[in-house]
Amino acid sequence: MTVADETALVLFSGGQDSTVCLAWALSRYSRVETIGFAYGQRHAVELSVRPAIRAKMAALDASWAERLGDDHVIPLEALGAVSETALTRDVAIEVAEDGLPTTFVPGRNLVFLTFAGALAYRRGARHLVAGMCETDYSGYPDCRDDTIKAMQLALNLGMQRRFVLHTPLMWIDKAQTFGLADELGGAPFVDLLLEETHTCYVGNRSDRHPWGYGCGTCPACRLRAEGFSKWMSNR
């Protein structure tokens, strides 16, 4: 694979999807930086696993280690303060009256991409890489491909840059995401995903399942479990 002599900025939460996106970027760009956000999330444990994931990915592949650049964590507590959701409050994880899950944080990805664009502007990164997906997801409107395309246009107009927003997982399901991880880094990278990444909405890092750590019942855990099971059965 040809590696572009360009810089990419990956929205890296510490979850499975963003970790696969980080590997995807490391396989394509000569320099890759990461950005994470502390917004008062209920599952803030995801932030604590990020350094170990980065370190272990660098240890997996010498070329990844050479290309992996700085990490940035941006405090966005104001987003949590204005959100009355199951990811920012101790409320039930369910479908609300408007048909959206209570885990939907209004404006979250729009804010994330705006701050990522501002940082990319300063760091000279043209490529923004994020793990949004609308194939098997929780129904968040800010994960849709149309939303990402609109944000790319807005960032380019508002900052007078030619950013390119990449969403490598947009049209694949969780089973295919495990398959992509296997293609990118083989069994060692898949093992890293299972052991180190965090997806569970309630922040459970105590219960270990075949697909990784989590409560096993929240929507994020169910999607991950179903995807892992499907991937294993199709191998």
Automatic annotation (TrEMBL):
Pathway: Purine metabolism; 7-cyano-7-deazaguanine biosynthesis
SUPFAM superfamilies: Adenine nucleotide alpha hydrolases-like
GO molecular function annotations of the record: ATP binding; ligase activity, forming carbon-nitrogen bonds; zinc ion binding
UniProt xrefs under CDD domains: QueC-like
First-tier enzyme category under EC: ligase
One example of a Gene Ontology biological process annotation: tRNA queuosine(34) biosynthetic process
Protein residues bound to ATP: 12-22
Binding sites annotated in the UniProt record for Zn(2+): 200, 215, 218, 221
Catalytic function, reaction form: 7-carboxy-7-carbaguanine + NH4(+) + 2 ATP = 7-cyano-7-carbaguanine + 2 AMP + 2 diphosphate + 2 H(+)
Cofactor detail note: Binds 1 zinc ion per subunit.
Keywords: ATP-binding, Ligase, Metal-binding, Nucleotide-binding, Queuosine biosynthesis, Zinc
Pfam families the UniProt entry points to: QueC
InterPro entries found in the cross-reference section: QueC, Rossmann-like_a/b/a_fold
Enzyme Commission number(s): 6.3.4.20
PANTHER family in alphabetical order: 7-CYANO-7-DEAZAGUANINE SYNTHASE
Family from the record: Belongs to the QueC family.
Protein name: 7-cyano-7-deazaguanine synthase
Gene: queC
